[in-house]
Specification:
Elements: E1 3-4, H1 5-12, E2 15-17, E3 23-24, E4 26-27, E5 37-41, H2 47-50, E6 57-61, E7 73-77, H3 80-97, E8 101-102, E9 107-108, E10 113-114, E11 119-120, E12 125-126, E13 131-132, E14 137-138, E15 143-144, E16 149-150, E17 155-156, E18 161-162, E19 167-168, E20 173-174, E21 179-182, E22 187-189, E23 195-197, E24 203-206, E25 211-212, E26 217-219, E27 225-228, E28 233-234, E29 239-240, E30 245-246, E31 251-252, E32 257-258, E33 263-264, E34 269-270, E35 275-276, E36 281-282, E37 287-288, E38 293-294, E39 304-306, E40 311-312, H4 313-323, H5 326-339
Parallel strand pairs: 4-5, 5-6, 6-7, 8-11, 9-12, 10-13, 11-14, 12-15, 13-16, 14-17, 15-18, 16-19, 17-20, 18-21, 19-24, 20-25, 21-26, 24-27, 25-28, 26-29, 27-30, 28-31, 29-32, 30-33, 31-34, 32-35, 33-36, 34-37, 35-38, 37-39
Antiparallel strand pairs: 1-3, 2-7, 22-23, 39-40
């Protein structure tokens, strides 16, 4: 796939400095750029590379001023990082949209309906009474259970599992190995010390523009729905339990675990390895730091929490400044005790 620099500039709403008829077919790091590739410069640490790169073109911000002669063409945009991101998105969407058709062997139940321009990879399975929208891409070894609904332009990567009754919106992306709609972790303790499984009869709803990372799991509700609202982004290896609700445009990093029936607001940021206990409410715009444990409701919007047991960040840092000096303080106390 080749584009002229003029075509790239049109996509980015930028301006070419150089030969707009030269062609690029590859995205390169600036330090590794070769002819036919296009790079970008957004971090000033990498400025020296722009004078030596062999890339055909480099995307730069409008305020970039070279101090030496350049061997490459420039595409000037308002913000180079945003521009390159937009180019990556366009490239990715083009590659994904080019997949159309049905590979064999694969299976779809006769009762299910699929839209136009879809792709079904080899060994994929679609169960009974499913509804699949237009331009959906279902890659190899994907399992889609009975009565699943999938909106237009959604991509389901290899090996993902969409369990029965799940509802997936439009423009979603489910990455390899993710499991949507498996049974929630529900067991009732018995008098003899054993546990009896509680049937999980609810489902999972992913609204539009949701991304679910590789090997992440979102459990179905015990009753009702586990809901991931529009625009939410979930990293790899995240566990979301039954009846959880994740608000709009909330982002959740890897290895986070969210226990059942917790409601997380919109525009929250949850860093890696955070742990949140069940039946809590987390306010909008909350930031939860890495390895932070949350054991109580967060009612104030815009709160930032950090620490094994989540607490106000300023209070935690004050406490930690004392904690790290405890050994020296203990020595001083022992010396004082000896003098008594």
């Amino acid at each position: 796939m080749e584009f002229t620099l003029g075509q790239v500039a049109a996509i980015l709403q930028g301006k070419v400095e150089g030969d707009e008829n030269q062609k690029v077919s590859r995205l390169d790091k600036i330090q590794e750029g070769k002819q036919g590739g296009i790079s970008f410069l957004a971090n000033e640490k990498y400025t020296p590379f722009i004078y030596d790169t062999e890339a055909t073109a480099v995307i730069v911000s409008n305020n970039f001023t070279p101090t030496k002669t350049l061997k490459t063409n420039l595409i000037r945009v308002e913000d180079a990082y945003t521009g390159f991101t937009k180019l990556l998105e366009a490239y990715s969407m083009f590659m994904k949209s080019s997949l159309v058709g049905v590979e064999e062997p694969c299976y779809i139940d006769p009762s299910s309906k699929v839209g136009e321009q879809i792709y079904r990879g080899a060994f994929s399975y679609i169960g009974k009474n499913c509804t699949i929208g237009d331009s959906v891409k279902i890659q190899s070894h994907v399992h889609i259970g009975d009565r699943v609904q999938i909106g237009d332009n959604t991509i389901i990567h290899a090996g993902a599992k969409i369990c029965a009754d799940s509802i997936i919106g439009s423009n979603c992306e489910i990455h390899p190995g993710a499991v949507i709609g498996a049974d929630g972790f529900g067991f009732a303790p018995q008098e003899d010390g054993t546990y009896k499984a509680i049937p999980q009869i609810g489902n999972v709803i992913l609204e539009d523009n949701v991304s679910v990372g590789a090997n992440s799991t979102i459990d179905c509700a015990t009753m009702g729905s586990t809901v991931i609202k529009k625009g939410a982004k979930i990293d790899n290896l995240v566990q979301i339990a039954h009846n959880v609700i994740i608000g709009e445009n909330t982002v959740i990093a890897s290895q986070t675990g969210i226990s059942g029936s917790t409601v997380i607001g919109k525009n929250c940021v949850i860093a890696g390895k955070a742990g949140i206990v069940g039946h809590l409410k987390i306010a909008d715009n909350t930031t939860i730091g890495a390895n932070t444990g949350i054991s109580k409701n967060i009612s104030k919007s815009g709160t930032t929490l950090f620490g094994y047991i989540g607490m106000d960040m300023k209070n935690f840092l004050k406490s930690y400044s004392i904690f790290k000096n405890l050994e020296a303080m203990e020595d001083r106390i022992r010396e004082l005790e000896k003098k008594q």
